Amino acid sequence: MQERRGGSRYVVSFPIRARWKDENGAEVREEGLTENVGLMGTLAYFPRKLPNVGTKVELTVIENPDDEVTVSAEVIRLERNAAHPQVALNLVEGMRTWKKKVYDLAESIVSNQEPDGDDDW
Questions:
Q1: Which residue, among 1, 3, 19, has the nearest Cα to 89 in the 3D structure?
Q2: Host domain of residue 87
Q3: Burial bucket for residue 1 (CB in 10 Å: 0-12, 13-18, 19+)
Q4: Helix (H) / strand (E) containing 45
Q5: What is the CATH number of the domain that holds 27?
Q6: What are the Cα distances from residue 109, in Å, to 8, 9, 26, 44, 55?
Q7: In the predicted model, is pLDDT for residue 118 greater than 80?
Q8: What is the DSSP code (8-state) at residue 82?
Q9: Which run of H or of E encompasses 58?
Q10: What is the model's pTM?
Q11: Which of 50, 69, 105, 113 is a Cys-bridge partner for 61, taking CB atoms 3.0 to 4.6 Å apart?
């Protein structure tokens, strides 16, 4: 299968808050963490509830409480692992803000990390 994603993804855990409507129209709120951050979306971990594929989600990155970033995203894939449920989110609005305040921050964090030392076996 050909890789369809473009751009780099950075393994960074930012705290997030999500809101969406379930199949009955009730609002659901869930907090979690990003697993990786890409230019057009994120893979996120939510411990309790996952939105269904196709659901529109209001996603807020709360890494910096003084400068929270809120974007709109759509669920494109679920990982229903009982121990670690994940949702893949593709941005539909707020891409410019996401790039400037989330993606570029993730890139900076990863590029400033020291490489792991050699393991002694």
A1: 19
A2: 15-111
A3: exposed
A4: strand 41-45
A5: 2.40.10.220
A6: 14, 12, 37, 18, 30
A7: no
A8: T
A9: strand 56-61
A10: 0.87
A11: 69
